[in-house]
Amino acid sequence: MLEYPEWLRIPLAEWVDAVMDWILANLGGVFDWIGDVGLQVLLAVEHALLFVPWFVLVIAVGALAWRLIGKWTFGLGMAVMLLLVGVFGYWVEAMTTLSVVIVSVAIAVGIGIPAGILMAWSNPVKRVLTPILDAMQTMPSFVYLIPALMLFGLGRVPATFATLIYAIPPVIRLTDVGIREVPGDTIEAAKAFGANRWNLLFDVQLPLARPSIMVGINQTTMMALAMVVIGSMIGNRGLGMEVLLAINRVQIGKGFEAGLAIVFLAIVIDRITNAFAKGRPAKVTDAGEKTTLKG
Q1: Which residues of the chain have a pLDDT value below 50?
Q2: Which of 172, 198, 254, 270 could form a disulfide with 112 if both were Cys (CB 3.0 to 4.6 A apart)?
Q3: How far is CA 129 from CA 111, 136, 227, 232, in A?
Q4: Which CATH number belongs to the domain containing residue 178 in this structure?
Q5: Residue 211 and residue 209: Cα distance in Å, rounded?
Q6: Nearest-angstrom CA–CA distance, 158 and 218
Q7: pTM of the predicted model, to two decimals?
Q8: Which string of b and e fits 223-257 if b means at least 16 CB within 10 Å?
Q9: Residue 89 gets which letter from DSSP?
């Protein structure tokens, strides 16, 4: 009497298994092709990062940070943090991790910004996508490894797929928020001058929503980097794998080094993308007035 009635149970697990079985039986070849292409892209990005001499990349990151913030101490700090990743002996692993982050974030931005624009344009689309995004952000990240593993097997490609699903919601949400917060009188003024929907989007809405969109890209990037350890559970090499191996072997020192390398890489990425979101520092003109340089 007090037990939950069995007839009220919904066999959701069986339905999901049936869908996955159908996908594997009918679309397995498609996902094999996607996996092969994705692996080649990941390897190309990794090889490009490793082709650049380490000291050139460190100097470039420091110079970029200095240029964006306008403080040489900030640029030096970013360069030193990136240098410490190599000092710990994890330069190659860091570039492998960075290749997964770059590819997953690039795909997330390519999908997320158009999706955010559609949400801003259409309230029905927003009502459909909002609960989906809620579920994607609250679902335990380990769950994403299961379909990724079934569709692509072990390796970097399923880790990139899981990272993409986990990290894409912020850029969609903040693109929607940024466009919706564009002042109505600005839009009306643009329409009065004959702007159509595409003129409004590219000449008014996207430029004014840029800070919000850049914050979304920043958050997506940080969430992608947060998946590196979890992705190592399905064969993704890099810094996450080093942490996982240290846990399995109870190597506290090695795990601490690899963890610090992830922290330093995350700080560098976070500060630079934040600087892009805020634009370049104010600059004093000859007339003595401050102007803000846009990034």
Answers
A1: 281-295
A2: 172
A3: 13, 10, 23, 29
A4: 1.10.3720.10
A5: 6
A6: 22
A7: 0.82
A8: bbbbbbbbbbbbebbbbbbbbbebeeeeeeebbeb
A9: T
